[in-house]
C-alpha cells in the first residue's frame, strides 16, 4: 500500500491541477506554442520594475510586513476601489495572488461539510479550493449554452429549497474559462438572492480590465459580498504573487477571522511584490487598457482559426482572455483532442473537462504576441481540421 493510505483524503480526493497535467504533457516537447495557461505576454510597467530594482538592499524588503499588506499599498488600493470600482464600504487585505485570496475566504467563510454553489464551466482552482478544505458538497449550476450566463432560476430554487442553504455562491466575472461577462442586472439578481437566503457571494474580478467591444466592468457592494482582485494579468505580474480581497467593513468579525488564516499561510504577501504592485498602480489603468486593446486581434485570429468547429461553436471572449469552444459530437474525449493538438500540431489548449465542461476546449488569447498568435492559430486550424477528418474517417 505504500504511504498512500496515510495521506489526507482532503488532498487525495481533490482534482489534480490541470496546469500540472499540461506541463507533463508538454515536457520535452519544445516546439509547442501555448494557448493553454491563463497568462499575458507583457511584463510589469518598466518604471515600476526600475523602482523596485533600487529597493533590493533596503532592509525592510527582507523582513515580514503587516499581515494585511503594506499600509501605503492598502491606502492606494482603497482609493482605486473607491474611484474605479465604486466600492466605498470595503476594507482591503493584500494576498499572495487571487488564488490565495480565495483559499483565505473559503477557510474563513465555510466549514467542512457546508454546501456551496458554482456554475459550470467553473474556474478549476476555486473548485479545488473547496474540495481540499472539506467543502465537498459543491452544487454545480449550469450556464446557458448560448450566452454562458449562470442559470439564475436554478440558483433561486436552490437557495430557497435546499436544506441546508448553501453557504457561499461563487462567480468569476468576466469568466474563466468562459470569457463570458455577467450583465449587471443579472449579478444584482444573484446578489439579492444570496442576501435573502443568508449566503455569501464571492465575486472573482481577476479580469476586471479585460473587457472588449465597449463593455464596462462593474462591482457590487453589500454586507454579504466579497470581491477578489489580482495584479497578475493586469500588470503582467503573475510570478510576483499579489492579489487582494475587498471585504465589507460592516461584516462582523470577518477581518479577525481572515487574519488568522492569513497569518498561517503567507503571513504577508511578498514585500517586494507589494512594492511592485504599488508602483504599477502609478502606471494606472490606461497602461493596462492599451495592452488589452491589442488582444482583440488575437481573439479574432483564434476565433477565425476555429471556424471549422462550426458557426456558434466558439463562445465567450466578451471579457477575460478566453474563448470557449465546443468540440464536435465525435470528440467525446476532450483530453484526447488536447493531446493530439500538442503532440502532432505543436499547440496547447486546456480540456474543458478540467472546468466541468467536457467536450469543450479553453483557448487563451493573452499569452502570445500577435505574430506568435497568428502562428499558433494556424496550427490550431490545421490540427482541428485533421482531427475531425481522421475521427470522421
Ligand atoms: C479567475 C481567476 N482567479 C484567480 C486566478 C489566480 O490569480 P493569481 O495569480 O492572482 O493568484 C486566475 C488565474 O488564472 C483566474 O483566472
Q: Please, could you describe this protein's structure?
A:
The chain has 393 residues and is of the alpha/beta class. 41% of the residues lie in helices and 15% in strands. Helix 7 packs parallel to helix 8 (184-197) and helix 11 packs parallel to helix 13. It starts with 8 loop residues before the first helix and ends with a helix. Residues 38, 97-99, 123, 172, 176, 204, 206, 230, 232, 238, 243 line the site of pyridoxal-5'-phosphate (PLP).
**How would you write the strand order of the largest sheet?**
2-8-7-6-5-3-4
Order of helices and strands: HHEHHEHEHEHEHEEEHHHEEHEEEH
Say how many strands there are: 13
Shape: globular
Described by its quaternary structure, the protein is single chain
Which hetero ligands occur in this complex? pyridoxal-5'-phosphate
Helix fraction, binned, reads 40-55%
**What is the mean predicted local confidence, pLDDT?**
95
Radius of gyration using CA atoms only: 21 Å
Report how far the terminal alpha carbons are from each other: 44 Å
Specify the structural class: alpha/beta
- What is the helix tally? 13
Can you summarize the main beta sheet?
7 strands, mixed
Beta-strand portion reads: 5-15%
Amino acid at each position: 500500500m505504500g504511504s498512500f493510505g496515510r495521506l489526507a483524503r482532503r488532498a487525495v480526493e481533490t482534482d489534480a491541477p490541470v496546469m500540472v497535467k499540461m506541463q507533463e504533457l508538454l515536457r520535452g516537447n519544445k516546439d509547442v506554442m501555448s494557448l493553454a495557461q491563463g497568462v499575458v505576454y507583457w511584463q510589469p510597467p518598466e518604471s515600476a520594475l526600475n523602482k523596485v530594482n533600487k529597493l533590493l538592499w533596503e532592509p525592510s524588503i527582507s523582513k515580514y510586513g503587516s499581515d494585511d499588506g503594506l499600509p501605503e499599498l492598502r491606502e492606494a488600493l482603497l482609493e482605486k476601489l473607491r474611484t474605479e470600482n465604486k466600492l466605498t464600504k470595503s476594507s482591503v487585505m493584500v494576498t499572495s495572488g487571487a488564488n490565495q485570496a480565495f483559499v483565505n475566504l473559503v477557510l474563513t467563510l465555510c466549514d467542512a461539510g457546508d454546501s456551496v454553489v458554482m456554475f459550470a464551466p467553473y474556474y478549476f482552482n476555486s473548485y479545488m479550493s473547496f474540495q481540499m478544505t472539506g467543502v465537498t458538497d459543491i452544487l454545480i449550476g449550469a450556464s446557458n449554452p448560448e450566452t454562458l450566463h449562470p442559470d439564475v432560476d436554478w440558483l433561486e430554487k436552490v437557495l430557497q429549497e435546499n436544506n441546508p442553504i448553501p453557504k457561499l455562491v461563487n462567480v468569476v466575472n468576466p469568466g474563466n474559462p468562459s470569457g463570458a461577462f455577467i450583465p449587471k442586472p443579472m449579478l444584482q439578481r444573484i446578489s439579492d438572492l444570496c442576501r435573502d437566503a443568508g449566503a455569501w457571494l464571492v465575486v472573482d474580478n481577476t479580469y476586471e480590465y479585460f473587457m472588449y467591444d465597449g463593455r464596462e466592468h462593474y462591482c457590487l457592494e453589500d454586507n454579504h459580498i466579497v470581491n477578489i482582485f489580482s495584479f497578475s494579468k493586469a500588470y503582467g505580474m503573475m510570478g510576483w504573487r499579489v492579489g487582494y480581497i475587498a471585504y465589507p467593513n460592516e461584516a462582523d468579525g470577518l477581518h479577525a477571522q481572515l487574519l488568522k488564516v492569513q497569518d498561517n499561510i503567507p503571513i504577508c504577501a511578498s514585500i517586494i511584490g507589494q512594492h511592485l504592485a504599488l508602483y504599477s498602480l502609478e502606471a494606472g489603468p490606461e497602461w493596462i487598457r492599451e495592452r488589452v486593446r491589442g488582444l482583440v486581434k488575437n481573439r479574432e485570429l483564434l476565433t477565425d482559426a476555429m471556424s471549422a468547429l462550426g458557426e456558434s461553436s466558439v463562445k465567450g471572449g466578451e471579457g477575460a482572455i478566453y474563448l470557449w469552444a465546443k468540440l464536435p459530437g465525435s470528440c467525446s474525449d476532450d483530453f484526447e483532442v488536447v493531446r493530439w493538438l500538442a503532440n502532432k500540431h505543436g499547440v496547447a489548449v486546456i480540456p474543458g473537462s478540467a472546468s466541468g465542461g467536457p467536450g469543450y476546449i479553453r483557448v487563451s488569447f493573452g499569452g502570445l504576441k500577435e505574430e506568435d498568435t497568428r502562428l499558433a492559430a494556424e496550427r490550431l486550424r490545421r490540427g482541428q481540421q485533421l482531427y475531425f477528418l481522421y475521427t470522421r474517417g
